[in-house]
Amino acid sequence: MDAQKMESQTETIKMDIGPSLSFPMERKVHIQISRRQLIKTKLRKSCFCTTKRLKNVVMDFFPVFRWLPKYHCREYIWGDVMSGVVIGIILVPQAIAYSLLAGLKPIYSLYTSFFANIIYFLMGTSRHVSVGIFSLLSLMVGQVVDRELLLAGFDLNDEDDANSNSYKWNGNNSNVTAFNLTLGGLSTECGKDCYAIGVATALTFLAGVYQVLMGVFRLGFVSMYLSESVLDGFATGASLTILTAQVKYLIGIKIPRSQGLGIFLTTWINIFQNISQANICDVITSVVCIAVLVAAKELGDRYKQKLKIPLPTELVVIVVATLVSHYGKLNEVYASSVSGAIPTGFIPPQLPNFNMMQRVALDAVPLAIVGFAFTISLSEMFAKKYAYTVRANQEMFAIGFCNIIPSFFHCFATSAALAKTLVKSSTGCQTQVSSVISAAVVLLVLLFLAPLFYSLQKCVLACIIIVSLRGALRKFRDVPQRYHMNKVDTLVWCITVFSSALISTEMGLLIGVLFSMLCIVVRTQRPRTALLGQIQSTAFYEDDWEYDSLCPVPNAKIFRFEAPLYYANKDFFLKSLYRMTGLDPTLEAAKRKKNEKKQKEHLKEGNRGTIVKGSDQADTALHLVPKQVDFQTIIIDCSSITFLDTAGIITLKEIVKDYNELKITVLLACCNPSVIDSLKRGDYFGKDCKKMHELLFYSIHGAVQFARDRKFLADGSAV
Questions:
Q1: What is the C-alpha separation between 249 and 460, in angstroms, rounded?
Q2: CATH of residue 541
Q3: Residues 421 and 366 reside in one and the same domain
Q4: How far apart are CA 574 and CA 234, in angstroms?
């Protein structure tokens, strides 16, 4: 279909420049193209292939080919190498520690950190974001892994002996009890660790697929519903759950691993019931490690301007703790739980279990949403800070493939992490070359250094995780300031925190999003309303409830409604209008009709010679006098009404009709073009918009002047 031009329309809107000045405002002519033609044009453009276009597509999909040839080596290399080494040093202990959250062996966390950095280097558009393991995602993966292990018949409380953790990848000699499993599609003999990583890779693959599909269908707008209050509340609530899950490692007790809703409370009950079994060696180690880590973090925060690079406290603590544990034989003498053997090298790649995906398909949805929401928000934040641009859609592709491809190499879900990104930017990072350096550091550990962490106590890893939650847990200190800034956002934050902690992380995120949206709906259902008065000797009007010394406009009521007018708030609109003007036209019309009827009956009785005493007659006459209204015009300020639906248009038409029956005129002022178009389509201005210049005004003052000139207001009114 050929392009069709919309008819040009002329709107006559009363201006307030002069006492009777009006002039036509001609709307621009917009060209409307049919949807079929638009689709054809896009398809033709998309399917058109040339060498140049193919090159652009490849370079858009792999942004590294655009910026790497322009890399200023002398200017950038030192900052990238320094930040890459620092992040690599931080990644190693965090990777080993976060394996506890995911319920997986430390080797898988190292794989995840390695592959995520390489893939984001190739596909990411942010120069500063650090992509890798993230505590919240590790927790979410771990909860799904634990659930599936229980359903498969494994005992979550069975801790593998450190000496038996040999990780023989040939599959012929598993040192854990082998089960002939058919649940989830794993029909071959598979041990607990094998089954756990199978669940994690299936979940990760699906999450990556969802993220790529969001990029293909441009569904990035979904992240808009994750407000800052929801994300902060979710992170804080999940941090409480993470802290709770690590307490058993801190004090060295063995308790049942809770599942389902209410993990937070159930875990704490089990902790207090088994507190007498605490391992004194683990308790002392935890106290010392937390004291050292917190002190180092506080010193680092205080003197961060003087320190060129952050203190590698986690690495120092891990090295020292491993040496003490090894030479002190803490595992053998005090039965302190240790990490066990971590193999070197890479496991052969393997397809994720597609039958298992049917069981975890729903669990991958919040994982995908949280992953890309944190990645995009961090990318845009640092792009704005350092004055460059990122492509949100490409970021979704990048983080999606950071999950899809590594899932073939025994990795689990990743996203951008704020703490590592802050460190990365503060240590001089210029480009994603730093990610390659970080991956090289992790690779060094994977190939040579991993077995050295055999004697590392699990309580030390738990300490690293808990201290890393300082930022999220400190959000509780900001509650008074947050409450002072916005009470509704504070309520959203609190609801999300406590639902994430007390119910479950996934339900907490869902509840937070739904409650946040409910708050928006409630705000539009019961918005602020006001009657306006005139600012002395000006053409401006403001809320007479909020400001003093405003002049009321004689014989007129100016009503402001600060929200869209639609089906959900039309009743509130009417109630507010009737309450603030002091007149319900429907009831008043009914009263007048009733009074007229009584008056006619009274006249008939008088004609029949009915004798009425003087006082009774006076009372009756007074009762029959209709209510005197102190205004003849209602002006509705539409400046805050962003749109009208069908119910809103009908509501406006009804109040015009009802008030006209009482000889009260209703005028509209300050309507935006969208509202004007809706009113036209609803025939609010009559046939061919003939009454438009009498009902619609550019400003409130123009409506007031029009009413005065047409004798709707008293001749002596001061405007």
A1: 8
A2: 3.30.750.24
A3: yes
A4: 39
Asked if 333 and 454 sit in the same domain, the reply is yes
Checking if the pLDDT of 697 tops 50, the result is: yes
Nearest Cα to 229, choosing from 503, 528, 487?
A: 487
Residue 624 near residue 599 (C-beta atoms within 8 A): yes
Is pLDDT larger for residue 24 or for residue 549? 549
Is the pLDDT higher at 351 or at 154? Answer: 351
Block residue for tokens 């621009």: 28
Taking all residues of the chain, what is their mean pLDDT, rounded to a whole number? Answer: 82
How far is residue 85's CA from residue 427's CA, in Å, rounded to a whole number? 10
* Per-residue tokens: 247: 């307490």
Residues 504, 561: one domain?
no
Looking at residue 589, its pLDDT comes to 82
**Minimum mean pLDDT range among 226-235, 561-570, 576-585, 635-644:** 226-235
Strands in 433-552 per DSSP E: 529-535, 541-543, 550-551
Q: Which residues pair with 22 in a beta bridge?
A: 14
How many independent structural domains does the chain possess?
A: 2
Own/partner long-range contacts of 257-265 (Cβ < 8 Å, ≥24 apart): 257/146, 257/156, 257/157, 259/143, 259/146, 259/147, 259/150, 260/504, 261/503, 261/504, 261/507, 262/502, 262/503, 263/143, 263/504, 264/240, 264/501, 264/502, 265/502
- Looking at the fold, whether 534 and 449 belong to one and the same domain comes out as no
Considering the domain architecture, whether residues 375 and 471 belong to the same structural domain is answered as: yes
Of 486, 521, 556, the last residue of a domain is 521
Confidence class of residue 718 from pLDDT cuts 50, 70 and 90?
Answer: very low
Strand partners, 666: 634
**Does residue 121 fall inside a structural domain?**
yes
Looking at the chain, the whole-number percentage of residues with pLDDT higher than 70 is 85
Gyration radius of the chain's alpha carbons: 35
Tokens matching residue 437: 């350096």
pLDDT of residue 25: 64
State the DSSP code for 560.
E
pLDDT for res 633: 92
Please indicate, yes or no, if residue 177 is contained in any of the structural domains. no
Across 145-159, 275-289, 386-400, 611-625, least confident range: 611-625
Based on the fold, state whether residues 434 and 557 are members of the same structural domain: no
Same domain, 203 and 292: yes
The position carrying tokens 């049942």 is 256
Provide the b/e sequence for 459-482 (b: ≥16 CB within 10 Å).
bbbbbbbbbbbeebeebeeeeeeb
Cβ atoms of 267 and 255 closer than 8 Å: yes
pLDDT band at 579 (very low <50, low <70, confident <90, very high): very high
pLDDT of residue 178 exceeding 60, the answer is: no
275 lies in some domain = yes
Per-residue pLDDT tens digits for 403-454:
999 999 999 999 998 778 887 887 778 899 999 999 999 999 899 888 888 8
What are 467-515's pLDDT values in tens digits? 888 888 888 988 999 999 999 999 999 999 999 888 888 888 889 999 9
- What is the Cα–Cα distance from 577 to 581, expressed in whole angstroms? 6
- The span from the CA of 547 to the CA of 544, in Å, is 5
Q: Which domain holds residue 660?
A: 529-592+628-716
Asked if residue 176 belongs to a domain, the reply is no
Q: Are 326 and 380 members of one domain?
A: yes
b or e along 66-96 (b: 16 or more beta carbons within 10 Å of the residue's beta carbon)?
eeeeeeeeeebeebbbbbbbbbbbbbbbbbb
Which residue, 491, 521, 551, sits at the end of a domain?
521
Rounded to whole angstroms, the Cα distance separating 528 from 522 reads: 11
